From TrEMBL:
<feature type="transmembrane region" description="Helical">
    <location>
        <begin position="210"/>
        <end position="233"/>
    </location>
</feature>
<protein>
    <submittedName>
        <fullName>Sodium-dependent transporter</fullName>
    </submittedName>
</protein>
<feature type="transmembrane region" description="Helical">
    <location>
        <begin position="418"/>
        <end position="440"/>
    </location>
</feature>
<dbReference type="Pfam" id="PF00209">
    <property type="entry name" value="SNF"/>
</dbReference>
<feature type="transmembrane region" description="Helical">
    <location>
        <begin position="139"/>
        <end position="159"/>
    </location>
</feature>
<feature type="transmembrane region" description="Helical">
    <location>
        <begin position="381"/>
        <end position="398"/>
    </location>
</feature>
<dbReference type="InterPro" id="IPR000175">
    <property type="entry name" value="Na/ntran_symport"/>
</dbReference>
<feature type="transmembrane region" description="Helical">
    <location>
        <begin position="43"/>
        <end position="64"/>
    </location>
</feature>
<feature type="transmembrane region" description="Helical">
    <location>
        <begin position="245"/>
        <end position="272"/>
    </location>
</feature>
<keyword id="KW-1133">Transmembrane helix</keyword>
<dbReference type="InterPro" id="IPR047218">
    <property type="entry name" value="YocR/YhdH-like"/>
</dbReference>
<feature type="transmembrane region" description="Helical">
    <location>
        <begin position="348"/>
        <end position="375"/>
    </location>
</feature>
<dbReference type="InterPro" id="IPR037272">
    <property type="entry name" value="SNS_sf"/>
</dbReference>
<keyword id="KW-0813">Transport</keyword>
<feature type="transmembrane region" description="Helical">
    <location>
        <begin position="305"/>
        <end position="327"/>
    </location>
</feature>
<keyword id="KW-0812">Transmembrane</keyword>
<feature type="transmembrane region" description="Helical">
    <location>
        <begin position="12"/>
        <end position="31"/>
    </location>
</feature>
């Protein structure tokens, strides 16, 4: 039997897990949610709920992963001591594979938009136009290219693939974001956007719809419920202090989301200053795909030659964010095929990636009916239910003493820590209730 991989360093794990959490949900989703939900009031509640809800659930996944040292199906089977855990694990495998199927499509778009800037810089205007025109050929080609990049990294295993590339990609992502922020803040109109982003309307803070949106964003942006954090937790040494590592991952994830808002919300007001329409008919800021593929490219077009380089930098940032998440998603089913079905890693990676690409192609061939449906099915329904089940396993079924013994391997005084005084009852009572309320409201 092959020896399981294990992260070789603390920073390697933190950057890999942060990379999993930092995806398009942070850089596309978070600023869009801010734009749609009262600016700084949303930011304030997101920061609060990220620690009150997302961190405890993140710790449930990491603890289950490290204690069992198994793929998601076998890990939940061990913890639940019965068939229900394995069934939830299989549901997690299917959900994460479907998320990667649509994520691969969107990741491909990010790469094609980055290359459009390169084509324009090179004077290849016909190619540039093709790269940003919605077509089956373009979508299939760039989805396949994005999946090949993901396969190339995951094939290398935990240390030589996931850790090596996370340690390179995550600092690059931070540098690009800081450069974009510095540039955007030199433009006219940026300060107006910064005020919207940083000055909360306290009357909006307790708006139920804002709270539900902030809760959902905090939960989904950390890749919770689908086994990515569980599998990364299984690659962590027993000598590491897991609550501290989890806190570091949460802080980086939240930091990237907040930094993305600092780039994108002021950029929208720069666009407004340059004559680009940023509000819809009802007076709300444009969000999501309209923001990324219409508002910001229109802004870059008003900047002349420098706009091509800013556009290239922005879509390179989006491509890196998508890739750091896709490698963790692919690792979830791959680890199951390697460990449970005893298939060699490289063969398992290609096999799983091929199946997911077929799912992506099916979505693209039936785009109008399937794309939105798959996103809603996985992120609105399946992910919260899986997160709820993880809380039930960690809080109600898994023996508390087993959890404590695992924590004590790294910290002999773990039972006297603040984490152990609060987390067991919090994940048992508060998290399931909050997730259930969120799920009910989303229906």
């Amino acid at each position: 039997m092959a020896i399981r991989g294990e992260f070789s360093s603390r920073i390697g794990f933190v950057l890999a897990a942060s990379g999993s959490a930092v995806g398009l949900g942070n850089i596309w989703g978070f600023p869009s949610q801010v734009a749609s939900n009262g600016g700084a009031a949303f930011v304030l509640m997101y920061l609060l709920l990220a620690f009150l809800l997302a961190y405890p659930v993140l710790m449930a996944e990491l603890l289950i992963g490290r204690a069992t040292k198994s793929n998601v199906v076998d890990a939940l089977g061990q913890v639940s001591r019965g068939i229900s855990g394995r069934a939830v694990g299989v549901m997690g495998l299917i959900t994460v594979s479907l998320i990667l199927a649509f994520y691969g499509i969107v990741g491909g778009w990010m790469i094609s938009y980055a290359l459009e800037a390169v084509a324009n810089i090179a004077g290849l205007t016909d190619l540039a136009k093709w790269l940003v025109t919605f077509s089956l050929e373009r979508n299939l080609l760039f989805c396949a290219f994005f999946m090949l990049l993901t396969v190339g990294i995951v094939s290398g295993g935990v240390v030589d693939g996931i850790e090596r590339w996370s340690v390179r990609l995550m600092p690059t992502l931070f540098v690009i974001m800081l450069l974009l922020f510095a540039y955007v803040m030199t433009q006219d109109g940026a300060m107006d956007g910064l005020k919207v982003y940083l000055l909360p309307d306290f009357a909006e803070v307790l708006n139920p719809n804002l709270l539900i949106s902030a809760m959902g964003q905090a939960f989904f942006s950390m890749s919770l419920g689908v086994g990515t954090m569980l599998i990364y937790g299984s690659y962590v040494s027993h000598s590491e202090n897991l609550p501290r590592l989890g806190a570091a991952v949460s802080l980086i994830d939240i930091g990237v989301a907040v930094l993305a808002g600092l780039v994108i919300i002021p950029a929208m007001y720069v666009a407004l200053n340059n004559g680009v329409e940023i509000f819809n008919a009802s007076g709300q800021l444009l969000a999501e795909d309209t923001l990324i593929f219409t508002v910001l490219p229109s802004l870059f077009n008003t900047m002349g030659l420098v706009g091509l380089f800013v556009g290239l930098t922005f879509f390179l940032l989006m491509s890196i964010a998508a890739l750091t998440s896709s490698i963790s998603m692919l690792e979830v089913p791959v680890s199951y095929v390697v460990e449970h079905q005893k298939v060699a890693r490289k063969k398992a990676v290609w096999l799983v990636a091929a199946i997911i690409f077929i799912a992506s192609a099916t979505i693209l061939l039936n785009f109008d009916s399937l794309f939105g449906f798959v996103i809603t099915l996985t992120t609105r329904y399946s992910q919260p239910l899986l997160g709820l089940m993880l809380c039930i396993f960690a809080g109600w079924i898994w023996h508390r003493n087993d959890i404590l013994q695992d924590l004590k391997t790294a910290d002999a005084n773990a039972e006297y820590s603040w984490f152990w005084r609060i987390w067991p009852w919090y994940v048992k009572f508060v998290c399931p209730l909050v997730i259930a309320v969120m799920f009910y409201r989303s229906l």
